[in-house]
Amino acid sequence: MAETARSSRTRLYRDGKLDLEGFPVAEISDHLAEPGTLVWLDLCAPTPQDFETITEEFGLHELAVEDARHEHQRPKLDRYRDHSFLSMYAVCAHQGGEELSVSELSVFVTAKALITIRFDDRFDMDEVVSRWDDSSALAEYGVGYLLHGLLDQVVDGHFRAVQEMDDRIEEIEEGLFDGTAGSTEDIQRAAFALRKNLVRLRRIVLPMREMVNTLMRRDLRIVADPMMPYYQDVYDHVLRATEWTESLRDMVGSIMETNLTIQGNRMNMIMKKVTSWASIVAVPTAVTGFYGQNVPYPGFGTEWGFLVSTGVTIGISVALYLGFKRRDWI
After folding, report:
1. Could you list the residue range(s) of the whole structural domain that residue 147 is in?
2. Which of 42, 98, 112, 302 could form a disulfide with 9 if both were Cys (CB 3.0 to 4.6 A apart)?
């Protein structure tokens, strides 16, 4: 994988309206000192110097900055005296959910600023900016407005990933009985990949429920009252994605068991057919073997003896065939 290029983006809202973009990070503290301002800073693939800068500019707690420096944090919300720290993951499903792309996000929330930190550029921040622009009338409600746009985009990504996995599982289910789902090995491989990614997705989605619920607490003073319905909508999406993920895990397990059961039934049918034909073939073998004895027996060396042996062979074989056919063994 190519190394992600370092980049930074800044935005300044003044009195609920977008006022400035692309200004230097070093000027943030000056803008924050002005009344009625709101700042967004995004860092992609930050350097140690970047972390020192934001610590100085925003007065962030060293433990929160330490968590932001290191990848593979668990999804969580930590509260400090004058700011909060969030760790979350954006996801994108590929090949029907058999591949899952995960991008970690660290977020600092202060009274007048939102700082987003990404270790790579797989999460499209342009989509978040578009959401902010589409709902610019809500910018007057401060940092809760910016955080909502980010959470909404992340949670929608979770929802799309679950939807894609659901479609893939439904496709496999329909193909199990009509033979279009592929070989047994292909089905088992796809089901195992889906199950593995669903477990991974559950670890990402489940903590979001507590995170969003905590953000809506009034004592945090992050979400203004007019923004509460928007956060409740995000919370509902989180609940649906969580419950959907749980149900899909059960469905994948059912697919794996059903596929093995179908293969077992097919094997039983094959064994019945092989056994039935072996029984039919055994009749002429036994009869001809008996008449092939080099000793005198009734009809030995006569034409009628040959006709009797042939009739017995054909009669018993036909009777066995009809009996097996009636029981659907052939």
Report:
1. 7-262
2. 42
